[in-house]
Write a structure and sequence with these properties.
9-stranded mixed beta sheet; elongated; 31% helix; homodimer; alpha/beta; TIM Barrel; 2 domains
Chain lengths: 366, 366
């Protein structure tokens, strides 16, 4: 099938760029001897997870039980749920997974750990857990100064095995500055390493130290004591990351092809991709209204408004040549939730569609 | 099954409220003798479409070909695509649909209409079309003063049958003021009626005049010459509409049940619903940061930040009682894209889960 025969909107993955990105992250991380455990929430796709393993990933990170089930079913047997698993139904599912694959999840409270422990004992399994430490993002995670005490308590609970320390520090400073990003990433990683060493000093084995995302992995990997990094978005990259100075638009492997369905004014085009394709995510940098995605080749035209099934594009002078029926390519602001809206991705090389990848872990809200 | 046994996050529909909402809109519109053609993009669910038909809907509105195919397959035989269908692949699908159901779509340009005409002739079908008129929203739609000329040209094209005039004016003024909303809705409806009458005067039959959404339907229905209204969100309502003065939180039939997975600080809870459940849609009223949804019973607690799988809640004093494992109910800002993220809705009456409705037309990005 030819790229130009695809209906619109379509999420198209340039396979050359994808492979380049996957390989580049492996190359960035390898010199430090840390494990690469890429986060599959970005692509939710078995084929791309396989590609990541082929290029040296040691296991996968997933965001929730539903994603873990899909990846376990596809044969991946070393998973980390970068999240806290709470609730009877989910712990039952986790207990089933534990019987077939190596899988860890996070704890950040004694209450949560006690619930896990109770279920582990009831089901006769052992849950591997990572201590989730707040390194500054103020999302989940126990504060470092309280982490040692919690770690000691968790280590005593039956049915739990404390494997290490987990943190996520966010994507870093919202400016293009590698020095600042390095500082940010080091602070995140050093916080986790500190807690792991304190636990060791207290006689509690917590060998693994898992940190970082796409923009921070190469810096976090360099910190002594870190054992793995978890970048996700790097497989595709997106407009947010380019604006943050991580890569260029040419490094963006996923583009959304959308069609002009209306040209109601000289400076306005309406496309068939709205918020149910692009998501409503605003750019990272709030000060500057750059619209709902980057239009390839027309950087000064702006996707100014989204309705559910309409994108309203304010056209720059060059963009005024667009006609009804023309197809444009958009690099989304945030690629991960856009992929989550689609049922499949089209893998292309040049103009040739080489494969259709099911977004196998799409949905799975629970 | 009991409501409290559902895993989280879950989208739960209160069936009593749903039926009340569906009936209320029928009652609002019936006195004016116009047809009710509810927009199914809100629920994408066959069962709820059936309920709308049971309470007097004359047909359904859909947002795109993919939704039309699902509803046609389920037996609904009078559909309006509230959108412009452009591109060979989509027109082929439309040609297949035309053979089995009555289906209309919109045109707002001669170029688009000519493409449709060419495909209709090639496939030996007739496409029913509505003239999409811009009544002030500046999305798609031809300007009223240019519409008569376009209507005359469209009426001449082989393979097309011009059925009437279509417009969408948006949800109305972003303030609680029924007088202003009435003015807004009248201007929208009168624009469409004006164009339809001018076409008639020019000897072109364009009997149908299709207008309005949830907040404007009861006003649009009152305008002489309007033949149908297309409310969508009213089946569930949502926090945006309540803030606009359309109904109360008690009228909101869909709630998202989410669980507290972390209590990392006295004034902070983290829930298992993030942007992949709630969407990133900001409230309609930008001046006031009310967060990413309304928490039932805790109106002063705010869903202050969303990550893909985490919602960070800033707790009011009352909210501080929340414990890990507790479930909260959220009324989303904009219900339509939230439903589009889920695979199913749970229909409940009191605490009893009476049915599971597949979000049958979810996805279908093309």
């Amino acid at each position: 099938m030819n790229l130009h025969d695809l209906d619109t909107p379509s999420l198209v993955v340039d396979l050359d760029r994808l492979e380049r990105n996957v390989k580049a992250m492996s190359d960035l991380v390898r010199p430090y001897g840390v494990r690469l455990r890429p986060h599959v929430k970005t692509h939710k796709t078995v084929e791309i997870a396989r590609l990541q393993m082929k290029y040296g990933a040691a296991g996968l990170t997933v965001a929730k039980i539903g994603e873990a089930e899909v990846m376990a079913e596809a044969g991946f047997d070393d998973l980390l749920i970068a999240n806290i698993v709470i609730g009877k139904a989910k712990l039952e599912r986790l207990a089933r997974l534990v019987r077939t694959v190596r899988i860890k999840s996070c704890v950040d409270s004694l209450e949560g750990a006690a619930m896990m422990s109770e279920m582990a004992v009831r089901y006769g399994v052992v849950f591997d857990v990572m201590l989730d430490v707040n390194s500054g993002l103020n999302r989940t995670g126990i504060l470092p100064e309280q982490a040692i005490l919690l770690g000691k308590e968790v280590a005593k609970l039956p049915g739990l095995r404390l494997c290490g320390v987990f943190t996520y520090g966010g994507y870093g400073p919202p400016v293009k500055d590698d020095g600042l990003r390095n500082q940010w990433a080091r602070r995140e990683a050093e916080t986790a390493v500190f807690v792991a060493r304190e636990l060791e000093n207290a006689g509690i084995a917590a060998a693994e130290v898992s940190v970082a995302g796409t923009p921070t992995s190469r810096f976090g990997a360099a910190v002594a004591g870190v054992t793995e990094v978890r970048p996700g978005t790097y497989v595709f990259n997106d407009a947010n990351y380019v604006r943050l100075g991580f890569g260029t638009f040419d490094d963006c492997a996923l583009r959304i092809r959308a069609r002009v369905i209306s040209r109601p004014a000289a400076d306005r085009a309406v496309i068939d991709a709205g918020s149910k394709v692009l998501t409503s995510e605003k750019p990272v940098r709030d000060g500057q209204d750059v619209g709902y995605g980057h239009i390839v080749g027309l950087p000064d035209s702006k996707i100014a408004a989204l309705w559910e099934e309409h994108g309203v594009v304010h056209l720059c002078d060059e963009g005024r040549q667009l006609k009804i029926g023309d197809v444009i390519e958009i690099i989304p602001n945030h690629v991960c939730p856009a992929v989550n809206l689609a049922d499949c991705l089209y893998g292309v090389r040049g103009d040739k569609v080489e494969g259709i990848f099911a977004v196998a872990a799409r949905g799975k809200v629970q």
